[in-house]
Specification:
Strand content: under 5%
Order of helices and strands: HHHHEEHHHHHHHHH
Oligomer: single chain
Distance between the termini: 29 Å
Number of strands: 2
Structural class: mainly alpha
Length: 251
């Protein structure tokens, strides 16, 4: 983990007190830099790397942490007391997927020109940051599904419309229907039907169909009252899979 990754994993780091920042940076130096005992200059380097205003002197803060037995001294260097380090391990340790998901969401705007998709992305990121994981799942699905429909409109519209008459002939009994604009998908077809037509037309692979079908079921569980738990881990896997295998591949 790099310091910039730490900032994404702990988005409120700038608002923390200097004492809390010192402990957080101490944990980072222990775990991710392999430094057994850190110096005040090591802590200052962390502040500078993240463009955070540092106190004129760390002495008073370090002394208070020593008195509270949250730090231990070894000559002129320091280390976190074990219980403090374990608390940080539990909260931020082994969360590579969290950092990866943040990076995926934060880097997407440069790759998405569609305004509606940018709005869905912004809302998904807000929900995820605020631990509204059910809402994050719903908004990420909206982003991925809108991206799929936009991809059909831009690249495979004739192919999609032709295959629609074959996959769902009953839809066309009175007259032959066709998709011409983004709103037509919602008005004429279920999401599951769009996925099936895209698969049959070769617009998406069977592997992508499998991902979309499974994620649609998860979205339905998240969007409707149910006993299904949607926690951080479930939301992260959902976001990671859809963005990597749908949004970024269908471009």
């Amino acid at each position: 983990m790099q310091l910039t990754d730490l900032k994404h994993a702990v988005p409120d780091v700038g608002a923390k007190s200097h004492a809390d920042k010192i402990k957080l940076f101490g944990w980072y130096l222990h775990v991710h830099k392999g430094i057994a005992h850190f110096s005040p200059s090591d802590i200052r380097t962390c502040y500078e790397a993240l463009h955070l205003a540092a106190p004129a002197s760390f002495g008073g803060y370090l002394d208070n942490l020593l008195k509270r037995k949250e730090l231990l001294r070894n000559g002129s260097r320091y280390c976190l007391e074990n219980r403090v380090r374990e608390a940080f391990d539990q909260q931020y340790g082994d969360r590579g997927i969290t950092i990866q998901v943040f990076q995926l969401l934060l880097n997407l705007p440069a790759k998405i020109s569609n305004l509606a998709e940018r709005i869905y992305l912004d809302e998904a990121l807000i929900c995820y940051k605020n631990e509204a994981f059910r809402a994050a799942v719903v908004m990420t699905w909206n982003l991925a599904y809108h991206h799929l429909c936009s991809h059909v409109l831009a690249c495979h519209l004739a192919q999609f419309n032709n295959r629609w008459t074959i996959v769902y002939p009953a839809h066309h009994k009175r007259s032959t229907k066709s998709i011409a604009r983004i709103d037509d998908f919602a008005e004429e077809l279920k999401e599951s039907e769009v996925i099936e037509i895209c698969t049959s037309a070769g617009i998406i692979t069977k592997d992508v169909r499998k991902i979309l079908t499974e994620k649609l079921g998860r979205r339905n569980s998240a969007a409707h009252p149910s006993s299904v738990t949607i926690g951080q881990l479930q939301a992260e896997e959902f976001i990671d899979d859809l963005i990597k295998n749908v949004v970024l591949k269908l471009s």
